[in-house]
Amino acid sequence: MSPNDGVAVVGLGIHPFGRHPGVSGLEMAAVAARAALADAGIGWAQVDFAAGGSDAAGNADTTVSVLGLTGVPFINVRNGCATGGSALTTAHAMLSAGSAEIALVVGFDKHPPGAFNPLPEDWGLDSWYGETGLMLTTQFFAMKIQRYMAEHAISQSTLAKVASKAFDNGARNANAWRRRPLSEDEVLASKMVNHPLTQYMFCSPGEGAVALVLARGERAKSLARTPIHLRSVAFRTRRFGSFEVFSPSIPIESAPSPTTEAAAAAFEQAGIGPRDVDVAQLQDTESGAEVMHLAETGLCEHGEQESLIQSGATRLDGRLPVNTDGGCLANGEPIGASGLRQVHEVVLQLRGEAGERQIAGPHRVGFTQVYGAPGVSACTVLSR
Amino acid sequence: MPEQTDFVAVADGLIAGTADAPQLIGSRCRSCGVVAFPRQASCAACTSRDVEERRLGRRGTLWTWTIQCFEPKSPPYAGTAEEFEPYGVGYVELPGEVRVEARLTEADPAQLRIGMAMELVLVPAPGDGAAMTFAFRPAEEGE
Questions:
Q1: Percent of chain A with pLDDT over 90
Q2: Which domain holds residue A297?
Q3: Between chain A's N and C termini, which has fewer beta carbons within 10 Å?
Q4: How close does chain A come to B41, measured CA to CA in Å?
């Protein structure tokens, strides 16, 4: 299938990320959906399939009552950090199968301040695991990067540079939450949360919404915007042996991560290799995640991150700009919206419409990867 | 079924042995040999339900670690703000068995090193009860 027969992103909408007292998640979703429809130059009545969801802010199809009751088939998705990726996977499959011509995908969320507060019984664990202080996502991320740093000679300075870059990029993004640049030293000097990760190396749960309009084949070309081809979407869950959050034990023999497998599948489906990627958005729940995901996705070799990041290769003017909108670190993490925010940013970059954060180099191929508990990953490849 | 112990554990079916020599209760798959903790009713590696209980080894090496510097939210955490002190957490590799996540008795990052020898002990569980939970403490090499 040539890209022209496939599925393209033809409309983008976003509600700013951050804190919005008095504005519900569903209201943010409606703002994003209307913006995406306007960007595509179509009305809600022309959408013949929709999918979306949030983790903690309600059912996506409730937005329908705001946008208008058109009878559109709407699938609500609630799938943790992969909510946006799952909605996108569903819409991509419906369009590819010829079951719809134009689809809307929406993701949104609204979380209270502070770290996520999972309960053991929701995750198939006994209460002692939470009672004794082992059930914290921050602990897991810290222990995963701690091991990785020892195996692959990654420095704490590199972790700080990832965060500093994110806030530099966020400062250039009007929709970002954290817009004050922070130096590497400020990141290192912030409060220790879980060794080796300091406060400014972590993202925070937040609020926001993103909507995308997708169209297939000829229909995409007939619309107002230059279509950005969604060459592939791949979604995987963990295999036995992958080191994941909320694991009272892990086997000695390890397996590839869900990100490794989802990324490989996405590149294979797209017929595009990781070396062709001009811009990438990677899950950066904390600095270490961006470092590890660079290699898990195949964008570099394990251990190569130290030189890549120290040399500035992942900055806006580098050869592989990563998290150009500031990522989760500068945007916060409204779970349902995060994965779609990544696609939103890559489409802006590939259109050449990213304004003061437009990447300096070529912008032909983009890649996104969202990852979360308890070991899910969704990747996309996009091209002009 | 549960043998007599000389301590109160934070949960049933989790810790066996004595206060001086506690043992974690895990399971081993009779089909593929994979060991898991806590005890599982089926094998996540091969899906077999032919699983037996297994007492895990008491010594291993530190595979990774962190320090929990802030008080976890309650619930689920059973401890209180007044008594909170940062604590170590790590995965300890029990040779030939499994890597177990546990609290560490050591909370000073300068004293923790990947690969160091560790030994299972009991520590008071967070909260106001008398229950004990498991933790690993640094052990003398080759002890």
A1: 86
A2: 3-114+202-383
A3: N
A4: 13
What is the C-alpha separation between A173 and A326, in angstroms, rounded?
Answer: 8
Asked if this assembly's ipTM is beyond 0.90, the reply is yes
Place of tokens 């081993």: B28
A366 pLDDT more than 50: yes
Q: What does the DSSP 8-state code read for residue A51?
A: E
- Per the structure, the complete domain to which residue B134 belongs is given by 15-138
A100 falls within a domain: yes
Number of domains comprising chain B: 1
Q: Is residue B6 part of a domain?
A: no
DSSP state of A226: P
pLDDT of residue B142: 58
CB contact under 8 A, A134 and B103: yes
| In a domain? residue A319 | yes
Count of structural domains, chain A: 1
For residue A240, the distance in angstroms to the closest alpha carbon of chain B comes to: 6
- Of A2-16, A158-172, A233-247, the poorest mean pLDDT is in A2-16
Beta-strand pair A49-53/A102-110? parallel
Cis peptide before A205 (omega within 30 of 0): no
Chain A / chain B CB contacts < 8 angstroms = 120
Let me know if residue A62 belongs to a domain.
Answer: yes
Task: Say yes or no: B57 contacts chain A, CB-CB below 8 A.
Answer: no
Q: How far is A301 from chain B (nearest CA, A)?
A: 22
Report pLDDT digits (tens) over B32-89: 999 999 999 999 999 999 999 999 999 999 999 999 999 999 889 999 888 899 999 9
Set of chain A residues whose Cβ sits within 8 Å of the Cβ of B100: 248-249
